[in-house]
Design a protein that fits this description.
The chain is an alpha+beta fold. The chain has 24 helices and 14 strands. InterPro entries: Actin_polarity_regulatory, Afi1_N, Tripartite_DENN.
Length: about 675
Amino acid sequence: MAPQHVTTILLAEFDIDQGSVLTHQYPNDITSDNHVLAELMLPDGAHLRPADWTIFFLNRAKPAPWNGNKTLTDDDTVENPLLYVLNLVRTNHDASIRRGAAVKAMAICTTHQYLHVYKPVLLLALENYFKDPSIEVLKALYESVNSMELSPPDLSPYERMILRSSDNKELFIEKFEAAHSVSAGGEEASTNRADMANGLGIVVGQTPLKGNRDGVVTSTSVPAAPAPGMTRNRDCQFYETKVVYDGIKIPIRVPLSINSEEVGEFSLIKLITTFSPANPSPNPHPFHAHLDSNGPNTHPIMLLMNALLTEKRIIFLGNGHPAGDVANFVLAACALGSGSGGVLRGFPERAYPYTNLAGIDHLLTCKGFIAGVTNQLFEDRTAWWDVLCNIDTGKITVSKDITPMPSSHGGHYDDVRSIPLFTGTPGSQFNSKYDNGDNDFMNDILNSIQAHYGEMVIRAKFQDYVARFVQLASQYEEATYGQTTIGLNRTNTPESIKYLGTGLVFIDEASRAREIAANSSRIEGWRSTTSYKYLQEDHKTWLASRSIRCMDVKRIISLLKLPKTLSPQDVSTLFKGFLQNISTDEQIIEFLSSLPLSQGGLFCIAYGLFHPLASVRNDTVAFLNRLNQHPTGRVYIKSLNRFERNTYERLAREHALQEENSIKQHHYARFSASAGSISSA
């Protein structure tokens, strides 16, 4: 059975007598609450503008086993998946009808988070419905979209991390080759490539290396021929296909590098610039330890980040704006809090990209909702929200009715307690200069935006920020409770002792203690949230499935970027560890995912080429040779600067020559020994 890309097509229209009406649900009804659904499809003020795009989610209620509910089975997930709804509402002015205008909305319900790719076909379908208002238009749209060929290469989370950090259009080209060969019936001929592409644990680095005419060291085991599938997919960042609707071939480009919590089209840069004042002033609201991680000087974006992490009720208000505007801010906020969708999860489940007063009862039952509204009334009802972000003024307001911090209490690891961020009297809290690094981070973000860095670079910085927060939280738990279930330690990675331990790298113990103390309150606030519970599950699964089990790669890379902290013997131990523990396809991909190409790639590994110890230089060459025999590793090798590449190529030739001479000497010794034994006989 062909995969179902779209589950339902919805059609709503405004009736002058009945108001918003849900006219059609094709092929089956997905809800009985037709009035609320019609109100979402026809947002406030839709009649005042020619068109508006909105997004909302359905089937968001999911049982959580840690709340005493039953665990979801695979059948439950298939039958009741979270649906992403892309909605287009249009107003056609016509003097011949009552009120002089017809307002209709059509929506596509899909399980695909990249629902924005359906905008062109939805635009054509709604135009056709205005011409012929019949259910046949919905049927034609449903059949056309579900007939779309969609079989993109299956990329692992690590491969997506590598892909999104690079602008190389041929990265993972072997994945397209394998998929193309299988679809063309050449499965047997492409076995080797498919094995490598699918990560079956093939050990690479066993074939000899040769130098070509240009002196570049390449492997003889993997051909570098262009992929036949690239005539169709010219950019491996996307999967290119098409939808044929009403005789029109509509090109579709499906992004391959998006993370699970990134939904639709949004701009994190726009979110940041909107709520970053040119002349920041101290926050006027009473201090709240979950939100004000930097005291009264907490940057508004950091306040929003803290509200997202600690599951506060958040509203984005755009009075009189198109519903699509506030929806994009909500989607960007989900990406912000989840670390660009690559660290934490659970944010879309509590997101309402657009809602209105008709859905307020359901909204208020959701813990920690993230909602977009266009009605000014929400701003006055401070009991409905904890944090309000006004996209007109660029101001973030903390509600006077926000739940105060619970009283501190000691206790067990499973307890959730609050630890005051500041010490001293309440009056001295705001006079203390307490900087945990967030302001420096935001200065770096704003400078990067002013320097015209791209959207993916900014997302990568926030992904690193949230990942560091999680690592810091795991160290806080170990220091406070003596155990953690969200990070690496000596218990789950005992061999890491040989490779300089696990966890974040700090300049000294004092800076470590200071940063943990500065973040303790928001860490405690986060520990009671759904995203924390999800992370515990995800970390347990990752520990069982990870391919590199004996070392903390991120910690080692951080140490190598601070070479003065390592002794020559430590460096030698680490590079020998790379050679001993990183050899399979899965291990190489996992290792490279910790070295984003946008942040220098292998430059910290290439330092080993210039190390004073000959053993380190030899191990570095051997490890780079191994990476060079892997298709993704070759891309990383090519990204080295000219000086590093020339050094690598020279040392690799010398290394190969030494091995060749060693083999010749070994054969000569054996021949001499055998000749001597014959002559003596």
